[in-house]
Model the fold of this input.
Amino acid sequence: GLPQRVTVYEVGARDGLQNEAALVPTEAKAEFIARLADAGLWMIEATGFVHPKWVPQLADADELMPLLGRHGFNDHTRFPVLVPNRRGLVRAAAAGAKDIAVFASATETFAAKNLNSTMEQSMLEIEATLQQALARGMRARGYVSMCFGDPWEGPVALRAVADVVVRLIAAGCVQVSLGDTIGTATPGHVRTLIDALERRGVARDRLAVHFHDTYGQALANTYAALQAGIATVDSSAGGLGGCPYAESATGNLATEDLVWMLDGLGITTGVDLRKLVETSGWMADILGRPAPSRAVQALTRG
Ligand code: HMG
Ligand code: MG
Done:
């Protein structure tokens, strides 16, 4: 059956904004995150300590994190940050981050494009990063990109994904998020992958799903994952997003579209949809174009 409660892991401030060419002021990012928290989201990926030349939008990560401390967030709210390597970890720790997210690729081509490395070399760097993060008492999640299809390599073998997932968990990730970076997954494939991972010893409560809506499949894929027992879903307020290093990647599953479905299914998220829609509308004004989310459009019409 379906889970009674789902954790919405909000990625708008990182995956959403990283693709925006126009720099959003650091203060506006801090307010965005505060408003997301006020709307009831409590896992909010705040930024990334990636190389500033690779993702200029996130070059202010070091300044943004201390701003979050000004807000009276409850103890429950967490602000994980994306970290590519040990250099990023040192920056994240200095900025006060307590939770990190590392990211690996299920394909060689994307490891080269996104991490300037091979799969093996990048896994070794991730393992070293995780070791140092755990020694600092941090909590870590892992992402695996290109879990379903890769724009250069085509369909991705279940085994290639499973090898990376198993290795990330062994290295200390409390959760691994299955990334459909370019949005080509379909619900049957989602189920097949989760079942294959279970056969490799990966429990469903260690997994999250991360869908991009490029082909309009994100919500259907999410439903398949819920039916398979997954209870953490990544999404982006307003449906912002995309990956600058993956051709044809568009926005993430929109948090509003997700919450609309979960509300309808009677699944608890703690998210106040009205406040969230207001927040995405506010960010859309800053970015100068409407939020791609269908639910945001429907709920702000008229
Ligand atoms: P590189 O150029 O190969 O780095 O980049 P390097 O290790 O050769 O080092 C070169 C210089 O960069 C050195 O400085 C380092 O100190 C510095 P120098 O000694 O020459 O003065 N450096 C850094 N500076 C600041 N912060 C750092 C850092 N690391 C090295 N962290 C690197 C390798 C991994 C850093 C680069 O490729 C990178 O930052 N990649 C990130 C790309 C990215 O952010 N992509 C989008 C996020 S992933 C995603 O969106 C997918 C996801 O959403 C899931 C899904 O949808 O599938 C998560
Ligand atoms: Mg993504």
Q: What stands out?
A: The longest helix spans residues 119-135. The radius of gyration is 18 Å. Residues 93 and 136 are 8 Å apart (CA to CA). The pocket of magnesium ion (ligand 2) is lined by residues 15, 179, 181, 210, 243, 252 (CB under 6 Å).
